[in-house]
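Researcher: Structure for this, please.
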Amino acid sequence: MKIGIKLFFDMFSEEISEKSKKQCDAFGGRDEYFEYISKNCDSVEISPVRTTDSPEAVLHAAKTVNGLGLHFTIHGVLSHESVFFNPYISLFRSGLQPFYNITVHPYADMEETRRTLSAICDIAAKNSYPVRITLENQRYSSEDKLHNLCRDVAECVADIASPYLYNCFDFGHHMSNAIKQGEEFDEVTDRFLSQVRQTHIHSYACNSTHFPLYCGMIRLEKNITDLIRHGYDEVLMIELDHNRYEGKYDFRKAVEGSIRTLKIAKYQIESKLSEEKKYKSGYADAIKDAVSFLGSDKDGLAVFAPSAYILKLGGTKIAIDMSLRTLPVKQEDRAMLSAVISECDAVIVTHNHADHFDAELLLAASEDVPVYIPDFLPFDKKGVSYVKSGTVVNVGKTEIEFFESAHSRGENIVPEYGFAVKYNNEYYIFPTDVREYEKPHKVFEGTKVLVSHLWLGRKNALYPFRNEYIEEFVAFVDSCGAERVLVGHLYDIHREIDDMWTDIHFDALKDKLTSCEKILLGDYIEF
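Model: Predicted structure, token format:
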């Protein structure tokens, strides 16, 4: 999918409006603004183009965008079929693109919209115009806009049934309707989603739409995921209106922040869907190398989920927070992992979160495997030993010491124990889900490996470029004094994209640490 942004049509003319000039000047001028867009986007929507605009002016704007190396679409105005195509005739003959997407708003009267679009599509077919019209869902503001919602647009497009006509999904309009009228008022149906060939993306804030993507309310994950599941592979088009938020948000920051946010959201969504596929249909294949590693004579760590590991030291195997409870795996894959756990010398559970404690999975494992679990977490299984901070146990050739871990931050009180595994007078430290990085903690002299779970603030994952937690995380890791740092808890797909840590976040901090590596599903790391 391409990332795009709307540019006002008059930005391409000599007589640029004051509004457009103000926006260009925020980047140092029109040329500088265009250069920024060319380096950070794939597409531009030229908006609005009216029937009275000259074909030469439209072609000039299109050639300018094309000269920047960008794809372009157009936001036109629905009008009588006799004049609708007037501004585009020269463009159609130019051959700049295989076809041209023109988005239009419906009339207040949907019957008139249907009649006009049907006639426009007939003309396009008769003349073999390289065009695609996309009809945009509207924000309900009064009774005359009642029949321009997602389901109405979908019905109109389905009734006309032309290969020249599809939908444009405006995220902000739909968000406004959901907030003001209720979730059921403007239903996004499968039919609507299957017809979408263009998007308009902006936030709802201050009782208005077209705000920057990093403020207000917007459903990036749900809407983009739904579109992908329906085969969408077109433009994610940012549609901002500086007039709506002037005085509240700096224009340059609004553009830059919206583009960055959308790019990160796109990466997060695509990554989540890719990882989801691994768990749903290829989990056994994803972890086969990790399982094979456990059968070798080498020491190391094997990764079975974002926070589930088996530590192997001198032939001693310790299963850690083995949970598939939040992940879409098949029952046979759960049984396979229970069998893997049954081959371990011990199981450790650190706290009662679904991605760390999977009672069903552990109950299916052999009763001969001892389970060490916090004293605040009841678990009825043979071989369970309850531990507290300061408890030391021996497992095979290792010694394990449990300690309090600073999982809680603010009002989110979650008791948790981390632990240190001692082997050959060296320590392998698992603080687990630390949140309060600045809280004093025990340091183990001679720490060879630290397995640290990344967390950069609640609902912060779409904004790594302005994240105050990075320095806290780095300081915490440094304070542990480890020779080697493994960063985990990545691609935890049961979380929403603004709470899921991925390569983007690891890359934002890796250069700040002396020695760190990310660990992912199916990895095995030799010590």
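Researcher: Any notable elements?
Model: The CA atoms of residues 283 and 308 lie 14 Å apart. The two ends are 40 Å apart (CA to CA).
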